[in-house]
Design goal:
Helix 6 runs antiparallel to helix 7, helix 15 packs antiparallel against helix 16 and helix 18 packs antiparallel against helix 19. By secondary structure, this protein is mostly helical. Helix content is about 70%, strand content about 0%.
């Protein structure tokens, strides 16, 4: 179980599209800049309709067999492989992408912006955010007006904790091309600084730019997550249901409905929903959720089967070049290997200083009994003003361990107010801790 639990990324804010230079506090002016990103109106941009990804890959493969020196087709095929890995939860497509993108860049090094952007997307998918930033900057040098290059750069800056730069990058992307891709990044930036209303507004604008049902279903999922993360189960369920109706093959909305069922206390419906989801799309996040639900239901034999699946997925991820240190830190810390979790969290902090990594390091330090140090990183995790129940829960439990009961009560109450359903594993712990402290304030 310890090995298996490493895989689930408890990143409620991070989405597949995105994934501090110093340790100082986030400046209020920067947060205000984030709230203003994309505020200006723009004419609608209609992107090309998405066809079948499998058909597109087959067509591109035929093209490069017939014309092996077509560097543009190779670059497009590489990006399609990256997307296929995300769609199927199969990271074995990443080495394939790496191979064809390398061929494309070997054929054209100087002005191959498609290859550079695709390499940036691949690096981000493997959680190599420094590499993604380098490729994005290379793409921008080729064409300083290419919106996708700014998307790669901004995503990497976000994950590296370089928030001021990221917000400016996203604003530039919106200025160049206001569409689903750029405005969804605006939404995430606003969510990070605690402007949930602004995040919803930006995502609703993004949804209006969606070119087909699949894109609208993706936007529904993001809006559902924004609603769920603020504890609004009715609004979340409505968005997830709309997304399912738009695109039944897009699994995250079905997972969202299963999560809502759990939050409403219907354990059987939640288990059934996650069973259907994992049968179609065995993402580690969903496999872990199903395992946790099995444990709540006392079905430990089935939970053990999920653990075995996660072991296999971990091996496949690592073999495909994916760094899972953040996931390892979050889950090992709470699943029987606190020392391993702390080592992974420190390794990730050495690479990047995002609020998610600060939170993971804080929790790993707490689970190792090092609460004074943990409190400092918990403060760093909350420096943007992000309305995260998980961050507040971690900070509150750390303060409780330090004996600062008033601060613990305030933070745990905040977590409960933001979203009492924030975690299958930790929601009951939050309720118990608050009861011991006299209930929510």
């Amino acid at each position: 179980m310890r090995q298996a639990a490493r895989l689930g990324a408890a990143t409620a804010m991070a989405v597949a599209l995105f994934v501090l230079a110093g340790l100082g506090l986030f400046r209020a002016t920067s947060a205000e800049e984030a709230r203003r990103i994309g505020a200006g109106g723009a004419d609608a941009f209609a992107g090309p309709a998405n066809g079948s990804l499998e058909a597109a890959i087959a067509s591109l493969q035929a093209r490069v067999r017939a014309e092996p020196t077509d560097w543009r087709a190779l670059a497009t095929l590489g990006l399609a492989y990256v997307q296929q890995a995300r769609v199927t939860a199969d990271p074995s497509f990443y080495p394939k992408a790496d191979g064809v993108l390398g061929e494309s860049l070997d054929l054209n090094t100087d002005d191959n912006i498609d290859g550079a952007v695709a390499m940036g997307a691949l690096a981000a998918a493997r959680h190599d955010f420094a590499g993604a930033l380098a490729w994005g900057e290379r793409a921008r040098a080729i064409d300083p007006y290419h919106a996708a290059a700014f998307g790669v750069i901004g995503d990497a800056q976000i994950e590296l904790g370089r928030y001021d730069e990221a917000f400016a990058t996203f604003q530039r992307m919106v200025d160049l091309r206001p569409d689903l891709s750029s405005l969804s990044r605006v939404s995430y930036a606003r969510e990070l600084v605690g402007d949930v209303t602004g995040a919803v507004e930006a995502m609703e604008r993004a949804k209006r730019y969606a070119s087909d049902a699949s894109d609208r279903a993706w936007a529904c999922y993001q809006l559902g997550e924004l609603a769920f993360n603020r504890g609004d189960l009715r609004a979340a369920a409505a968005q997830y249901r709309e997304g399912v109706a738009l695109a039944k093959t897009f699994v995250p909305n079905a997972a969202g409905l299963a999560k809502v069922a759990w939050a409403r206390g219907d354990l059987d419906a939640a288990i059934s929903g996650y069973e259907e989801v994992t049968a179609r799309y065995p993402s580690p996040e969903y496999v872990i959720a199903l395992g946790d639900l099995y444990r709540q239901a006392g079905r430990d034999d089935l939970a053990a089967q999920q653990d075995g699946l996660l072991d296999a997925e971990e091996s496949l991820l690592r073999a495909s070049g994916v760094n899972v240190d953040l996931e390892q830190a979050l889950f090992d810390a709470g699943h029987g290997d606190p020392r391993g979790g702390l080592a992974a969290a420190r390794a990730e902090w050495d690479r990047r200083h995002s609020v998610q990594v600060a939170d993971a390091l804080a929790w790993a330090l707490h689970e190792n009994g090092r609460d004074r140090e943990a409190a400092r990183y918990a403060s760093l995790a909350m420096r943007l003003g992000t309305r995260s129940a998980l961050f507040a829960f971690h900070a509150g439990m750390i303060q409780r361990s330090l004996g600062n009961l008033e601060a613990a009560h305030m933070l745990l109450t905040r977590a409960h107010e933001i979203n009492p359903f924030f975690s299958i594993q930790y929601a009951p712990v939050l309720e118990h801790a608050l009861a011991r402290l006299g209930g929510p304030a």
